[in-house]
Amino acid sequence: MADSRKYISVHQLADHNKLEDLWISIQGKVYNVTDWKNHHPGGALPLLNLAGQDVTDAFVAFHPATAWHHLDPFFTGYHLRDYTVSDASKDYRKLVSHFTKLGFYEKKGHVTCITLLLIAVLLLLSIAGVLLSDSVAVHVASAAMIGFLWIQSGWMGHDSGHSQIMTGPAANRFVQLLTGNCIAGISIAWWKLHHNSHHIACNSLDFDPDLQLIPLFAVSNKLFDSITSYFYDRKMKFDSIARFFVSYQHLTFYPVMCFARIAFPAQSLFMVLSNNRKLVPNWGQEIVGLAVFWIWYPLLVSCLPSWSERVMFVTVSYFVTGIQQIQFTLNHFSSPVYVGPPTSNEWFEKQTMGSMDILCPPWMDWFHGGLQFQIEHHLFPRLPRCNLRKVSPFVKELCKKHNLPYNCVSFIKANALIIDTLRVAALEARDLSRPVPRNLVWEAVNTHG
Fold first, then answer.
1. Rounded-to-integer distance, Cα 301 and Cα 328, Å
2. Can you give 271-333 as a three-state secondary structure string?
3. What are the residues facing 129 on neighbouring strands?
4. Any idea where the Cytochrome b5 heme-binding domain is (predicted)?
5. From 286, 327, 341, 348, which residue has the greatest number of CB atoms within 10 Å?
6. Which residues have C-beta within 8 Å of that of residue 25, sequence separation ≥ 6?
7. 135: left (phi over 0), alpha (psi -120 to 50) or beta
């Protein structure tokens, strides 16, 4: 019997790559998700970044088996005529299926309960230190505990944002709001939009927001061409101001990281208070959660006896979280980068090439929050962090089979690689033979007569 199915080509699918006309393919079946994009739990940007492509590997990575039945209403009736699957993708999908059968996605361990208990203890000790002691040393220790508390709440927000770490979706949502909005002042809606875009477009200079740090940092001289950020929808100008900062970025990296976390609450507020509420699912919950943070933290700081101690308290608490900001950069800053949209038919290759693991003994896993297995996490983002060490040998074997890098270095070596990467770009930025767009500040400083 002749095949009665309707077919389109890969090139025809690629024409449907706009917000107002957004098609994707999963296992060769074509879906029109134009009307779904604003309801997609991961946000519209991940869909747009992969629009007009077969997204099977990304779909498998981010969605449980229960999500498949939600696809039917969006089926266009078309199939891809020239649908092919690479050997790496075939093996990757087999691994996802294998891990599912082993129960790795369901066995969550006791990480969540232990971490939530630690967060509660740190918060109570910090409050007690501020309210019950007049010692400056105790106040400094209390501020440091707030910093460590924010680090652990960050790991919890990260885990709960990726997958269901509690017994049900309501409990999982509560943990998201508690650890993100209420305790850390970071909107989980902002984080998911930002972080999902990073995962989909890992190390794309114009699509991955984690690498878009102009004017302070540039991990590649490709950023000197003032490329456009598709996440922020603006041009990242490499002007004279950016050239100045980037020229010394290997020296300013650690000082900036000490206070870089301030940007997270600021960007959270900006998005939640913006006029575009379509970007913020459960807007009321998000705003209430952030309000809780902006009540308890300033109130705690106000209980200190002097302004000097209050400034000290805020400084120390943010300084400590600089550890986590450095951890966020270790896995990607020194890895290969590229310009352009992510290509979903190279999912396995792009994730392994753009990520790096950190050598870490099991008893130090709490310190890295799962990011020490960044390659595994990027390939299997729904996998509970307690199982990342278990799947690591499988990933190493698959990388070796397909001649792909599996980079794993010590914490100290990873820091050295970042500084080397930043130094190389800094020296290139100092090359005054490369012209840069002149801005108003440049014109003002260099005006004569």
1. 27
2. HHCCCCHHHCCCHHHHHHHHHHHHHHHHHHHHCCCCHHHHHHHHHHHHHHHHHHHHHHHHCCC
3. none
4. 5-89
5. 348
6. 13, 31, 53, 54, 55, 56, 80, 83
7. beta
Prior bond to 215 cis, omega within 30? yes
Indicate the residue type of 3: D
Q: What is the pTM of this model?
A: 0.90
CB 308, CB 332: distance < 8 Å: no
Amino acid at 134: D
Domain ranges of the chain: 6-84, 111-342
- Identity of residue 382: R
229 has which bridge partners? 234
Do the Cβ atoms of 112 and 120 come closer than 8 Å?
A: no
- Name which of 29, 63, 68, 22 is nearest 45 in CA terms: 22
Are 217 and 249 spatial neighbours (Cβ–Cβ below 8 Å)? yes
Single-letter code of the amino acid located at 379? L
Q: Which two tokens stand for residue 47?
A: 């869909």
Sign of the C-alpha dihedral computed for residues 210, 317, 267 and 306 taken in this order: negative
Which residues have C-beta within 8 Å of that of residue 260, sequence separation ≥ 6?
A: 322, 325
- Give tens-digit pLDDT for 59-89: 999 998 888 888 999 999 999 988 888 899 9
Which residue type occupies 413? K
Q: Is residue 203 within 8 Å of residue 139, measured between CB atoms?
A: no
Which residue, among 140, 148, 139, has the nearest Cα to 121 in the 3D structure? 148
Contacts of 233 (CB under 8 A, 6+ apart): none
Residues in the chain: 449
Treating both helix axes as pointing N-terminal to C-terminal, what angle do 188-200 and 283-302 enclose, rounded to 10 degrees? Answer: 110
Q: Convert the pLDDT of each residue in 191-221 to its tens digit.
A: 988 999 999 999 999 999 999 999 999 999 9
> Sign of torsion, CA 211 212 217 220?
positive
Closest alpha carbon to 150 in 188, 113, 122: 122
CA angle in degrees (0–180, nearest 5) for 372-377-378: 120
For residue 108, give the DSSP letter.
-
Residue indicated by tokens 């361990």 = 109
6-84 sits in which CATH class? alpha beta
